[in-house]
Amino acid sequence: MQLERLRTQLQHAYHDNVRYTEKFDSAGVKPEDLQALSELQHFPFTRKVDLRNAYPFGFFAVGQAQLARIHASSGTTGQPTVVGYTQSDLNMWASVVARSIYAAGGRPGMKIHVAYGYGLFTGGLGAHYGAEALGCTVVPVSGGQTKRQVQLIQDLQPDIIMVTPSYMLAILDEFVRQGVDPRSTSLKIGIFGAEPWGEGMRGEIEQAFGIDAVDIYGLSEVMGPGVAQECVIDKGALTFWEDHFYPEIVDPESGAVLGNGEEGELVITSLTKEAMPVIRYRTGDLTRLMEPTSRSMRRVARIGGRTDDMLIVRGANIFPSQIEEHILSCGIFAPHYLIEVTRPERLDEMRVRVEARPGIAAADWPAAARELMRRVKEHVGVSIGVEVVEPGKVERSDGKARRVQDLRRATD
Ligand code: DLL
Q: How confident is the model at residue 23 (pLDDT cuts 50, 70, 90)?
């Protein structure tokens, strides 16, 4: 089925979008050349910069009148990219999100509080229509107004919340501030994504709310949330919805396709999209492919970082998620932090500003800071400075959190 769909998708891209015609022609490949899935590796990559250069509609493969909706990527790493959907694309999207919610433990009739942002960002509306397609009751709250989020969770009694993990932490703060026990709510499941979050963060959220926290992955260029989903009965990796999205893992440097189990950059080809087929899209996300378990499709490991948020500090490669794991394993610090990288003289310096958990005496901060420095030095291989601040002093986000401030570029 994948092969058949892939051949049709390549035909559609090649014949209905001039940029793909040019790309395929200059690589000397034709859709009908493809006889086996593995031959996809001979087709050219599509990169974010290609989409940017074609801003806004240059990668669309249907006429405007056939478009049912337009979204745009969050633009966290530059100019946004615009993406389009036909009605059939929207139906497919809703069906994979419905499947994702089901794998997360959701069932028809359950109530879902959606606190992903509604608007051009794909999170809110993507979750919304998937939840409706599954037969759930949707509460379309969107992000922000944290006090009201807490109120609505208490009053409307949702079973599931869909939100970025960092905004879930802001909601947690608000529960604590109001003196309401977060374990007393009706919530059973949280479906978190749109940014990296590690096992430490999972433990933090599951414990605080008494819920199952599962991971949802996706990106606007490919569709939005619901490209892959962690099953609640089998946490640790995400089932990739391979009937609609074909995954490859490539070496980020050479672009060579890597084997199952090897860590590299995730490349995705859509199999059934109409408005904007994507062929070998370089996601920038680092992961590896794994064998299926509870469901028949292959899985991907949780995404700990992107090729472009890897920090190179004094020659060492570091992902913010690595620092996060050590922050949380200390037991003294809250999951609110900002990593600042500077180059005051000729050498890079990395400083972590992190909040102490409420109730930890300030007298205990210096020892905890030293312990964090020691662990990071030992396990990540880099010396850092640690500044411990009071609870609430690190800026909260109501969407994707900003974890890194790299001030080196300004001084280069
Ligand atoms: O973030 C779509 C989405 C919405 C996914 C809600 C999940 C939930 P973009 O704004 O285009 O789309 O950003 C996509 O976010 O390439 C990853 O780098 C990152 N990302 C998304 N989900 C995860 C995840 C949405 N579960 C970019 N873990 C992707 C780690 C994630 N990173």
A: very high
Helix (H, G, I), strand (E, B) or coil at 383: coil
Chain-wide mean pLDDT for the chain? 95
Residue 4 has pLDDT above 50, yes or no: yes
- Give 239's contacts (C-beta < 8 A, 6+ positions apart): 103, 228, 229, 230, 231, 292, 294, 295, 297, 298, 299
131/140 Cα distance (integer angstroms): 10
Tell me the pTM.
0.95
Residue ID of nearest Cα to ligand 1 atom 9: 219
Could you write out the DSSP letters of every residue in 261-324? T--EEEEEEESS-SSS--SSEEEEEEE-EE---SSSS-EEE---EEGGG-EEETTEEE-HHHHH
Number of H helices, E strands in the chain: 11, 21
Q: How confident is the model at residue 411 (pLDDT cuts 50, 70, 90)?
A: very low
Tell me what the mean pLDDT of segment 266-272 comes to.
98
Which amino acid is residue 30, in one-letter code? Answer: K
Do you know the residue count of the chain?
A: 412
DSSP conformation class of 412: -
Asked whether 143 lines ligand 1 (CB < 6 A), one says no
Residues 6+ apart with CB under 8 A from 40: 6, 34, 246, 248, 269, 280
Shortest CA distance to 353 belongs to which of 310, 322, 385?
385
Residue at 80: amino acid letter: P
CA 34 / ligand 1 centre spacing (Å): 30
d(CA 231, CA 225): 15
Q: Please tell me if the CB atom of residue 194 comes closer than 6 angstroms to any atom of ligand 1.
A: yes
Going by C-alpha positions, the residue among 39, 334, 394 that lies closest to residue 172 is 334
